[in-house]
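Entry for zinc ion complex. Fields follow.
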Amino acid sequence: MMYPHIEHPQLLLPDALIDGIDGSSMSGQAVLIDEGVIQSVGKVDAVRNEAKHGTIEVDLSGMTLCPGLIDGHTHLSLAGDGRSYDEMFSETDEMMVMTGAMNMMKHLRAGITTIREHGARNRVGFALKEGLQRGYIPGPRMQVSGRPITCTGGHFWFCNEEADGEDEIRTSVRRLVHEGADYIKIMASGGGTRGTIPGRASYTEAELHAAVHEAHHFDRITAAHCRARESMKRAVQAGIDLMEHAEFLDPDDVMRFDPEIAAMMEESKIWISPTLQAWTKYPRIVALRNERDMGSLSHEGEVELEGLEKRAQTRLDVMRKLLEYDLKARVLPGTDSGVGMLEFGHLDYDLELLVEVGFTPPDAIVSATRISAEAIGMGDTLGTIETGKVADLVAFRGDPSQDIYAARNVGAVYQGGRQIR
Ligand SMILES: [Zn+2]
């Protein structure tokens, strides 16, 4: 359900405001929005004085207003309903576009107002962005990669952008840019695709460097899927802009934290999107914990929950070790939604996991707003509540800077000044 478009300026009056410059909340603040842009923010009386005749006052009492959330890692064309890649990719492109349209609405309603679409088959990702831009379908602002570049038979080969060797990789980058890619996604290691090994690097440093060099030539930034320890090292050395997953996996499927690579990551100032809910199967943990809290968890459920929580700790421990380096301000959340059972609509889960590995709630919010906007090259227009920025906003019931679980409770969403929820 979309709200009608309001032509009048709006004065938003929340209980508290988190501007995203830092993550702490302030009370007694108001935000004036008009023509899709934040016109003013500050003390209620001062902002009210600036408001033109005809401004509509919006009561957001009980809520904390934040910049709209940014999800750096989504797969719109996948339903996140537990099916395997083989099953999901047996769908037609047409059904994948339909799936994407559904997912865009789910994310937007959850206060996620900007996403990166991290790779779909053929032209599905581009079609979704085109549909959004034409106003055919609602959704978060999006940057598309189009198709991920992968080696022959590599992770996500079925998206149809296989490339081997530096020349083919350069051709792929040129083709994707020509088709409309906003950034370049490359699979530097195996992953969940049958026949690939997550802990094994799939490109040489020279191949990754060819992608970076060609992408930068077109002013496009690069993101590399790096589950393998070796792929992380090569990605840093090749000058990749943003590292996905960063799991330090070896070919035997064991995570081995590597201080040398962590130091390289710190030194290089690479952006890192650890996609914590993907490895930990966090949505399943949440569902089981809810059952436990309701007193309806079966014995099998208890055993499953205990196993999942234990397994999750190994991943979270690796992240904690990584955060002993000066990297916190380079980390951004990414849901990896669409894959496995990762349903759309839950950046809140990533915020909870960031807090679990040592972020304060304000730090986690900044990571999902200002830092994410900077990492994807949109820091000039998005990510904070400041005069002149786009009016993409989310209001949570309660105050997530005090209690991160408040981010589960979305009260209102604005995109470009228009109320979505
Ligand atoms: Zn992914």
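NOTE: The domain at 10-67+382-419 is CATH 2.30.40.10 (Urease, subunit C; domain 1).
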